Amino acid sequence: MAQIDAFFKLMNDEGASDLHMVAEQQPVLRIRGDMERVKFKKMNNEELKTMLYEICPEDRLKTFEETGDVDFAYEIPGLARYRCNYFQQKFGIGAVFREIPSVIMTCEQLGLPKVISRLALLPKGLVLVTGPTGSGKSTTLAAVIDEANRVRKDHIITVEDPIEFVHRSQKCIVNHREVGMHTVGFSAALRGALREDPDIIMVGEMRDLETIALAMEAANTGHLVFGTLHTMNAMKTVDRVIEIFPETQQAQVRSTLADVIRAVISQTLFKRRDIKGRIAALEILIATAGVRNLIREAKTYQLISALQTGKKYGMQTMDDAIMQLLERKIISPEDAYTNAYDKAKFLKYLRQAPSDFTEV
User: Fold this and answer.
1) Which CATH fold topology does 5-101 show?
2) What are residue 19's DSSP bridge partners?
C-alpha cells in the first residue's frame, strides 16, 4: 500500500472531488466546490516528492523531470481511480488528484434529461459535451457510453489522456486507449481508430485542429463520435470548432459541421443546498434541420432562439436549466445568479446586491 493511499481513502470518505498536495503547504481537499485544509503537517519538497514518486510510473517520472508537468492515472482496486497531475512550482513539487468513481452512474441516477440517454442510440454523427474544467463533462459522457454499452451490440473505442472511467464490455466491445501509453496523441489514435472497425468513438479532449478535423471526418463516414471542448455554451462551441480552421477553409468546415453535428451539451456544476453533493445544469442544443441551416448560413447568433423554441426536441437554455434547479430549491439564488447569462432574471431571488460589482 502506497503512503499516499491514506489521503485517497480520506478523500473518498469526505466526498471530495480533488486532492491538492503542494510542497510547504498542508494537503487540501475540494469538497462540494470548497477548499478544505487537511489536519496534517506541511511536507517539505523532498518529503512530498518521495510520497508522490512512489505511485508514478517510471516513464511518466522521466517526462515530469524533463518537462515539469505530467498526467497519468492511478487506481486503488475497490476504491476508485484517480487522474493525477504533477507540476513544478516555486517552492517545489505539486500535485492535484481528481477522483474518478469506480462505479459509473447512469443518466437516470445523475438526473440527466431523458434526451441525453437517447444520444447513445444515434447511428452516426458528432456529439459535443462542453463546459469549464471540473464541470462534470467526463461523468456525463461516461453515463452515455455506459448506456450504449448496455443496449447496443457495437465496438466502442475511447481515447483519453489519461483513461478516466473504465467500461467493462457488456453488449458492446469496449477498448480504452491512453495518450502517451497506447498512442502518441489524440490525432494518431483517431487515424488508427478508423481502421479498427469502430461504431462509436469517444475523444477525451478535442484540443487541436487535426483532432477536430479527424473527429468530423469520422462522424462524416458513418461513425458516432463523442468529444469534449472547453467552451461555455452551444453558440461558442460551434464558433470555436469553425474558427480553429484557417479562414480559407471555414466555409467548407461550416458546411461539414452542419451535416455531422447531432447535439451540443454545455454544462455547469452547482453545489446542492438540499443534500450533500453537486448537480449539473445543462444547456442542450439538438441539431434539427433549422439548427443545421443556421450553422451552414453562419447565423450562430440565432441559435439562442432555436434553444428557446426547441423544447419539444429536448432543447433547453442554460438559464432555463438553472431556473428549474432554483425553483426546486436545489441550488442557492447566489449560485444561480453567478452562473446565469441573463442575470436580470435572477436578481429578484437575491437577498442582497450581487458581490460581483463588474456585472451590475
Assistant:
1) Beta-Lactamase (3.30.450)
2) 29, 97
